[in-house]
Design goal:
The chain is α/β, with parallel strands linked by helices and 570 residues long. It is built from 21 helices and 14 strands. Helix 7 runs parallel beside helix 8 (185-201) and helix 17 (385-398) crosses helix 21. It is elongated, with a radius of gyration of 26 Å. The relative contact order is 0.11.
């Protein structure tokens, strides 16, 4: 009997493990599939071309806009929709409506690099990838991938345009930065794969970006065409490294960036998105990628600047992309592709192969058994206590102590005068209030970034009377830039304060520390990576001795603080 029970338990564990390791999409391509064959045979030629396109959708731009997208879906038989800003219930309701209009179920996608909160209100924003880059336990990042997959599927979505696999080794990068796991290709690869596998094992189609690597650019491809002037050998050893590792682990999709790369294609002004040597020659033939290939948004200046009036859409398909994301005019593009076929720039065999692969992807996504999204309890489901707890676990694991281990935990001896100084916000912060609970005799000072010089000088004078300053520095913008938007006077105020017995915590992009001269003089220094309540709580708990730091810098900041720095507390 015991042996029988043991065998049953072993079988259950094996089945559970199999369920958690879903077969990657790339291993299902070209397998016999009756649903794919049946749908494909019913498509007209125009409908086949329509499957190659995904258009933009919002739920915060009004009814007329939503109706116009629905009209295009019905008329052009599009392959999918990419949602941007809006709200979860509105989006789920609109998804149900759009699916009802479509002859073939739509792929529904969103840029969710840090979860639904990247685009939607009333939803959770999990940590940025730069924050995750500091974590030493990649299993936590895998858990985040599973959670993001659960949220996306609850919303009726099948594709996440994430993770960012760019190696951000240029601190001046205007478009990647905090969206990357950092500057080290090995760390980027390991964390990208953990996030990818979590999402894919959760049933979400994962599309990594921005191939072949957007990390070492100083131009934003939304506004112009960046250039990667490096040798093919450098690109292969650095930029391509995380992508190649992910291909070996079964990555389902890839998004190609708009960049001019002379070492890979010497044609002047040709973005990688439109380059056959890059997409067909390198990505597909040399690197052997079999998954779905998406363009980056085709409305960006980096691609349409030199190829306007729909020519970019045609060239993207010729180059080897399977899905054109956010064409300026999908109706025009469909006509131009038909024209290109007549001109023998493309063939119907090319189109048919792409359409079959898209349908195979839709089958893997479960769109052959499409159900409408239940709106009841939706907001509660995507804001679960379990996800909030995971968020806190992630920030706890990321918080990085660079200096001052001997000062922690803080001791409240009721004799030492302690100041809690907040720089940036205009109201008391969670960090300050959490410290104040344990240090009721501490004095709070708020220094907003628009403080007058007169008020600043008054605060500086008062602070000279304190024995210890707990200084917290915030980036109050929606997206944490590589430099804080502080005045020179405010930076000098910070520099002066760090000459006292000061423990500084920075809730900002770690690169911003390089723009705060003198901060290295702080008696203690903590990197919080971003301005979020969870990170504030992690930092406060670290100071109070309720949390031990384990995070490591994912990037080099300056000569004082380099990649991998961080004190692991015992």
């Amino acid at each position: 009997m015991k042996k029988y029970l043991f065998l049953l338990l072993a079988l259950f564990v094996a089945q559970l493990a199999q369920a958690q390791q879903r077969v990657p999409f790339v291993q299902t391509i070209d397998a016999p599939n009756r649903w794919v064959d049946s749908v494909f045979k019913k498509l007209t030629r125009n409908q086949k071309i329509g499957q190659l396109f995904m258009v933009r959708a919002h739920t915060n731009l009004g009814q007329a806009y939503s109706d116009s997208v629905g009209h295009i879906i019905k008329k052009q038989h599009l392959g999918g929709i990419v949602f941007f800003q809006g709200g979860p219930v509105r989006q789920a309701a609109l998804t149900n409506r759009y699916q009802s209009l479509s002859k073939v179920p739509l792929m529904i996608a969103l840029d969710g690099e840090w979860g639904l909160g990247m685009r939607l209100d009333s939803s959770i924003s999990l940590p940025y990838q730069m924050t995750l880059g500091a974590i030493q336990n990649n299993q936590l990042i895998y858990k985040m991938g599973l959670q993001v997959a659960k949220d996306f599927k609850r919303m009726g979505m099948q594709i996440n345009f994430a993770p960012v696999m760019d190696v951000n080794n240029n601190p001046k990068n205007p478009v990647i930065g905090y969206r990357s796991f950092g500057e080290n290709k090995y760390n980027v690869a390991q964390k990208s794969i953990a996030y990818m596998q979590g999402m894919q094992n959760g049933g979400l189609f994962t599309t990594a970006k921005h191939f072949p690597g957007h990390g070492d650019t100083d131009v934003d491809s939304h506004y112009d065409l960046p250039q990667l002037p490096f040798s093919a050998a450098r690109l292969d050893s650095l930029e391509l490294y995380p992508f190649k590792q992910a291909f070996a682990e079964g990555l389902s999709g890839i998004m190609v960036a708009h960049m001019n790369i002379p070492a890979l294609d010497a044609t002047p002004n040709v973005p990688s998105t439109l380059s056959k040597p890059v997409i067909t020659g390198l990505l597909k033939d040399k690197l052997g990628f079999k998954g779905l290939v998406f363009t980056d948004a085709m409305e960006m200046k980096g691609v349409v600047k030199y190829f306007p009036n729909g020519e970019a859409d045609v060239r993207a398909i010729i180059a080897g992309n399977d899905v054109v994301e956010l064409s300026e005019n999908s109706g025009r593009a469909i006509k131009l592709i038909r024209k290109a076929i007549r001109q023998k720039r493309l063939s119907w065999d090319d189109i048919n192969r792409k359409v079959k692969k898209i349908l195979e992807a839709k089958y893997w996504m479960g769109l052959n058994n499409l159900d409408s999204t239940n709106l009841t309890g939706l907001v509660a489901d995507i804001n679960s206590p379990a996800e909030q707890q995971l968020h806190q676990e992630l920030t706890d694991a990321a918080i990085t102590l660079l200096k001052g281990e001997q000062l922690l935990p803080l001791k409240n001896d009721f004799v030492r005068k302690t100041a809690i100084v907040t720089v940036g916000p205009q109201e008391p912060t969670l960090f300050a209030k959490t410290i104040k609970k344990d240090f009721p005799n501490a004095t709070l000072f708020i220094v907003p970034k628009d403080i007058s010089i007169k008020e600043m000088e008054a605060v500086k004078t008062q602070l000279k009377a304190f024995d210890l300053c707990l200084l917290s520095i915030y980036d109050t913008r929606n997206r944490p830039g590589a430099q804080l938007d502080y005045s020179t006077k405010l930076n000098l105020f910070i520099a002066d304060l760090t000459k006292q017995q000061t423990i500084t915590t920075v809730f900002a992009n770690p690169y911003a520390i390089a723009g705060l001269p003198g901060i290295e003089n702080s008696a203690g220094l903590i990197v919080g990576y971003q301005n979020s309540p969870q990170m504030e709580l992690s930092a406060a708990q670290l100071l109070l001795g309720k949390l031990k730091s384990s995070g490591k810098l994912p990037v080099t900041i300056n000569a004082f603080f380099k990649y991998g720095d961080g004190i692991t507390m015992k």
